[in-house]
Amino acid sequence: MNFQAPKGVSEYIPPRSAIFEFVREQLSLPAKRAGYKYMELPVFEDTALFARGVGESTDIVTKEMYTFEDRGGRSITLRPEGTAGVMRAVIEHGLDRGQLPVKVLYSGAYFRAERPQKGRYRQFYQVGIEAIGLTDPLIDSEVIWLADQAFKNIGLKNYRLEITSLGDAKSRAAHREDLLKFYETLNLDEATAERAKLNPLRLFDDKRPEMIEKMEKAPVLLDYLSKESKEHFESVKEFLDQLGVTYAINPRLVRGFDYYTGTTFEFIHTGLGAQSAIGGGGRYDRLMSELGGQDLSGIGWGIGVDRTILAAEEEGVIPSDLGLPDLFIIPLNTKHEAMKIAKELRNAGHVVEIAFGERALKGAMKAADKSGAKHLIVLGDTEISTGLVDLKTMSTGDVKRVRISELHLALQ
Ligand code: HAM
Question: pTM higher than 0.90, yes or no?
Answer without folding.
Answer: yes
